[in-house]
Amino acid sequence: MQSFSTRSSIPSTSIPEALQNARKFPTSGFDIIQSNQMVEEEELPDYEADRFYPVRLGEIFENRYQVVTKLGFDLTNNQYVALKIYVHTSLFHREVPVYNHINQHLHTSTHRGRHNIRRLLDSFRVSSQGGTHAVLVSVPAQMSLRDMKLVFRKDGFDEMFVKGAITELLQAVDFLHTQGKIVHTDIHPGNMLLGTWDDQSLKALEDKELVSPVPRKPVSSTRTIYLSRLMHPRVGPMLLSDFGEAWIGSQLHGGDIMHLEYRAPETLLYISWSYPVDIWSIGLTAWDLLEPKKLFTARDEDDDLYDAAHLAQIIAALGPPPPELLKRNPARTNDFWNNDGKWLDLAPIPDDRTMESLESRLSDKSGFLRFIRRALTWLPEERATAQELLQDPWLAG
Q1: Which stretches of the chain score pLDDT less than 70?
Q2: Active-site pick, 147, 186, 278, 288
Q3: Burial of residue 221, with CB atoms counted within 10 A of its CB: 0-12 exposed, 13-18 middle, 19 or more buried
Q4: What is the model's pLDDT at position 9?
Q5: What is the pLDDT of residue 74?
Q6: Which of 142, 161, 252, 354 has an alpha carbon within 20 to 30 A of 151's alpha carbon?
Q7: Which of 78, 300, 94, 329 is nearest to 199 (CA)?
Q8: Residue 20 confidence (pLDDT)
Q9: What 8-state DSSP symbol labels residue 305?
């Protein structure tokens, strides 16, 4: 899917008058990217051009939303908004129903975590030659913490920044778990967005497009790919986003979930899961924001990716799993352990991947590692809740 922000061109006047007020963008003065250079969505491993909606700079959706680079403004409500346009092959969309459920609580709850949920403002569908695309309109944000780390802080964020981000993430998750009865299932730094307190940085991007348009790659007469513009982050709230994999209900669920390296033991072992999978992800998210190297890569020393390598790394960090956990699904656990609970060595247990050896940033690591161990436990019922983690001395300190 693609993410764009848009500027509305339709005030409460007639449509023709509104279209006269739409932005007009330069038709020259930009660099042309050569056809043999892969950029933006073309770099995705499963990219197929006709799956994506061919967004055009200046295009107007729903007689309301005008695309202005990848940022814009809703003139009707006098605010910037963001569009997420799904590929047309996305047949089942969980996000809108989940947001409809969340919105019931966002409007009535006084929980502080409601301010750390990225809000959905509107949704509709558009058609292309390939098919029909679902479109979600949300509040805007600057960039994800994953991208922010990749561009600006490759060695990891400062401890105080991590504490603040994780505090706001825990507030959002506590709201989801206690108010909305929702399991997010896809928590990682890529779904943590740096929001905005004001429109100054967003307006700056819009203004730049008018005087210095971004480079673009003409793919065909109907498709052009525009480069994203680097945005220098400003202070803002942390927003938990992307509810496309969320599940509603406090009961136990089943099925394959979670971002690859963030999978909790119960998902790897095909055991029913619930709220604690989000706590596991929060622990790994805190680690990844602070540290340059991941705690779990799910790969062996030859860089081969498989579940046994993932489980071996968890054993290295947490010690062997309790027998009680292995008994919950013997048909699966017997693939990795014998009947006596002995590891079958389908992947070597690395001796250099303990938490103590991998943590490299802190002079006093005891409080941070104690926090991580409250979130990362083999047994899901032994993990702290979001509310309990909010009271942890490492965060409070």
Answers
A1: 1-20, 72, 75
A2: 186
A3: exposed
A4: 44
A5: 86
A6: 354
A7: 78
A8: 62
A9: B
Q: How far is CA 33 from CA 57, 184, 214, in A?
A: 16, 38, 10
Angle between helices 276-290 and 366-375 (to 10 degrees): 150
pLDDT score for 11: 47
pLDDT of residue 90: 80
- Give the domain ranges of the chain: 141-196+243-395
Q: Check residue 12 and give its pLDDT.
A: 46
Q: What is the pLDDT of residue 397?
A: 75
**CATH superfamily, with its number, for domain 141-196+243-395:** Transferase(Phosphotransferase) domain 1 (1.10.510.10)
What is the 3 state secondary structure string of 198-266? CCHHHHHHHHHHHHCCCCEEECCCCCEEECCCCCCCCCCCEEECCCCCCEECCCCECCCCCCHHHCCHH
List beta partners, residue 253: 273
200: exposed, middle or buried (C-beta count within 10 Å: 0-12, 13-18, 19+)? exposed
Query: Could you tell me which residues are beta bridge partners of residue 135?
Result: 85, 124
Known catalytic residue at 186: yes
Q: Is 239:249 a contact under the CB 8 Å cutoff?
A: no
Q: Kindly state the tokens that stand for 317.
A: 């960090």
Residue closest to 32 by CA, chosen among 216, 223, 228, 221: 216
* End-to-end Cα spacing for the chain: 40
Q: Are 76 and 8 in contact (CB under 8 A)?
A: yes
Q: Which amino acid is at 220?
A: S
The closest alpha carbon to 87, from 55, 43, 53, 126, belongs to 53
Q: Which two tokens stand for residue 233?
A: 């982050």
Angle at 64 between CA 60 and CA 68, to 5 degrees: 50
Q: What is the pLDDT of residue 10?
A: 46
Strand stretches in 56-150, DSSP E: 60-61, 65-67, 81-85, 120-127, 132-138, 143-144
